[in-house]
Write a sequence for this structure.
C-alpha cells in the first residue's frame, strides 16, 4: 500500500491550520512570523505533492515553484524579523496587541 | 514510499509544529519549529524531491531558524509574558481545517497513488533553471538583494 495524494493534502492542510493558529492567536510578533513560515511551508508541500502525483511528473514545474517559494519565504523571514527588531527598538515591546497606534 | 513511514513522519512534523505554535517559551518554540521543518524535509525526500528537501534543510533549518533565535536574543525581556493565547484564533484555525478537509474529501481524483518516475536529478533541475526558468531566477536574485538591503536599512542604528 502506498500513500495517496489525499494523505499529502491532509497533512499540508493540518500544517496550514497550525500555522494559522500560531499567527492568529499568539501575542508575540515572532510567533506570528513562525506561523506565517509554517503556512508557506504547507503551500510548498502541496506544490511538491501535486508535482509527484500529477499526470506529468516528468516536468519539474512543481519542484521549481517550491524552490522559488522557499527563496521568497527566506526573504520574507529576513525582512519580517528585521521589522520585529525595529519595532522593539521603538516601542520596547514585541506584543502585537500593544502596537495599536494606527487604531482609529 | 510506504504509508507507515508517511504517517510516522506526519506525526513527527505536526507535533513539532503544534508545539511551536503552543509552547509558552519562545526559544523552545523556535527549536520545535526546527523539528517541524526537518520533518517537512523528510517528506520531500520521501516524495522524490531530494533537492527541495536539501534546500529546505539549508534555508529553514540553517538560516531562518538561526535568524529567529538571534531575533529572540535581541528582543528578549524576561518580564514580558509571551504565553498569551487568543481562543478566537483557535476557533478560526479549526474552522479553516474543517473546511479544507471537507474540500479534500469532496474533490474527486485525489485518491491516486504516485506514478513511477525517473529520478529528478540536480542536473535536470539546473538545466531547467538555466533555460526555462532563467527570468524567475534573475528576479529572485534581485528580490533577495532588495530584501537584504531592506532588512539592513530597517535594523540600522538611527541617528539621534
Amino acid at each position: 500500500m502506498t500513500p495517496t495524494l489525499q494523505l499529502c493534502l491532509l497533512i499540508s492542510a493540518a500544517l496550514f491550520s497550525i500555522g494559522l493558529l500560531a499567527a492568529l492567536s499568539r501575542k508575540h510578533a515572532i510567533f506570528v512570523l513562525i506561523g506565517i513560515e509554517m503556512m508557506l511551508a504547507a503551500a510548498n508541500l502541496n506544490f511538491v505533492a501535486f508535482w509527484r502525483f500529477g499526470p506529468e511528473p516528468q516536468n519539474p514545474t512543481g519542484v521549481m515553484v517550491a524552490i522559488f517559494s522557499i527563496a521568497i519565504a527566506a526573504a520574507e523571514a529576513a525582512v519580517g524579523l528585521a521589522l520585529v527588531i525595529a519595532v522593539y527598538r521603538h516601542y520596547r515591546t514585541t506584543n502585537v496587541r500593544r502596537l495599536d497606534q494606527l487604531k482609529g | 514510499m510506504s504509508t507507515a513511514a508517511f504517517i510516522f513522519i506526519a506525526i513527527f512534523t505536526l507535533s513539532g509544529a503544534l508545539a511551536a505554535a503552543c509552547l509558552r517559551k519562545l526559544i523552545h518554540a523556535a527549536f520545535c519549529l526546527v523539528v517541524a521543518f526537518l520533518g517537512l524535509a523528510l517528506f520531500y525526500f520521501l516524495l522524490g524531491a531530494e533537492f527541495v528537501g536539501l534546500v529546505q534543510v539549508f534555508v529553514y533549518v540553517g538560516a531562518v531558524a538561526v535568524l529567529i533565535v538571534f531575533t529572540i536574543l535581541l528582543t528578549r525581556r524576561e518580564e514580558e509574558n509571551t504565553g498569551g493565547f487568543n481562543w478566537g484564533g483557535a476557533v478560526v484555525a479549526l474552522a479553516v481545517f474543517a473546511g479544507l478537509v471537507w474540500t479534500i474529501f469532496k474533490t474527486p481524483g485525489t485518491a491516486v497513488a504516485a506514478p513511477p518516475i525517473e529520478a529528478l536529478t540536480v542536473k535536470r533541475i539546473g538545466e531547467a533553471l538555466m533555460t526555462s526558468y532563467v527570468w524567475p531566477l534573475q528576479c529572485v536574485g534581485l528580490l533577495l538583494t532588495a530584501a537584504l538591503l531592506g532588512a539592513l536599512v530597517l535594523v540600522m542604528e538611527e541617528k539621534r
